[in-house]
Amino acid sequence: MPSDSKLRATCFIPCSFPFSIPLLDVSPFVQKDQQDAILRSPKYRMDTRQEGAGVSAAHNYETSVPTIHEAFRKLVRESPRRAYIGHIATFIISEDLAEEGLTDVLDFLYRDHEVRSDFYIVISKDERAGDILQLLPPIEDVTSININNAIENGEKSYAEVQGIRIDSLFEKIIADGIEPAILGISTIGDLNAGKTMQNTEQIKPEAYLQLGPMAMFRDNQLIDWLNEEESKAFNYLEDTFDYNVGSLPCPDDGTMAVESYRIARNVTVHLENEQPSIDLEVDIDATVSEINCSDLDVLEEKSYQIIEEANNQKVERMLDRVIQKTKENQSDILGLGREVYRQHPRYWENVKGEWPEIFTDMDVALP
Length: 367
Description:
Elements: E1 7-12, E2 21-23, E3 29-30, E4 43-45, E5 47-49, E6 60-65, H1 68-74, E7 90-94, H2 95-100, H3 103-111, E8 120-124, H4 129-134, H5 143-157, E9 164-165, H6 166-174, E10 181-189, H7 191-194, E11 207-218, E12 221-225, H8 228-238, E13 244-249, E14 254-272, E15 275-293, H9 301-328, H10 336-343, H11 345-351, H12 355-361, E16 363-365
Parallel strand pairs: 1-4, 3-7, 7-8, 8-10, 15-16
Antiparallel strand pairs: 1-6, 2-5, 8-9, 10-11, 11-12, 13-14, 14-15
Keywords: Germination, Lipoprotein, Membrane, Palmitate, Signal
Domain Spore germination protein N-terminal: 49-183
Membrane topology: Lipid-anchor
């Protein structure tokens, strides 16, 4: 790390009241400072729920030291409690730091014996990571719990949202033939107003958090972002969601909604003259959940054939777009290289060092 680098740790610690019930919630973040020196900032948030109104659920403490581990320990100079990192709920990495790479940021998490493997990693998009956790959500008392619940519910109902836990991220970082994709998070509205208690007291909050899209990585560095439709397509191909709803235009006028509830992916790798190609078959089960079409008679079977064809065409366009984007960025977040290794291990051993270039030129068909 450069000599001018510094680390700032920010910790939310509860007020001490005799009637308080401690609920620990440790939420680190890492980001860069305004002088572009590397700033890796664990943010540890511990929440104590209080009776009565007008009491903040958490407080913010900061310290600057050269390493993440020392930052955790040094916080005891300012806070009455020692942060237990086994209670990490969400780890937020700023976009600019992710562009420099994840290796240094995650090194401490690899090594520390207290770190558990069940928390989410997210990337702050267009915002400082610290600002994300300072926004007061209108429903949940604690921002990191708000993020966790939003990810878990989003994974079950909307394909753009797919979190990655630290153990899965480690696996993709060290594995050959696959690159990680990490969920982004940003704020909507007036961020400064969102940091006040008034944000939690209004029917329509001044600011709130928004999940998505997905960040693409290559060699552990953030290189691009998928858009909403591309993020959905990526998670289709990952088969990592329970349900998704998409809208389709009617043949003549109006719109309809189709809910996908099961998807299966089958990858076949062909090898001819030492040149790989892939057939990527995707089978989706879906149901019509809403129809506002004056030109479709839902009692006729042909109407459902029309809907099925329209949905298939839309999904195929989405899948093709995300495949092309991964190839353009030489970022194999779909894990096609891993499929090459599984089906043709000897060939893979010979070409794995050149895989990004081979992947870019490889034919990927959606039969």
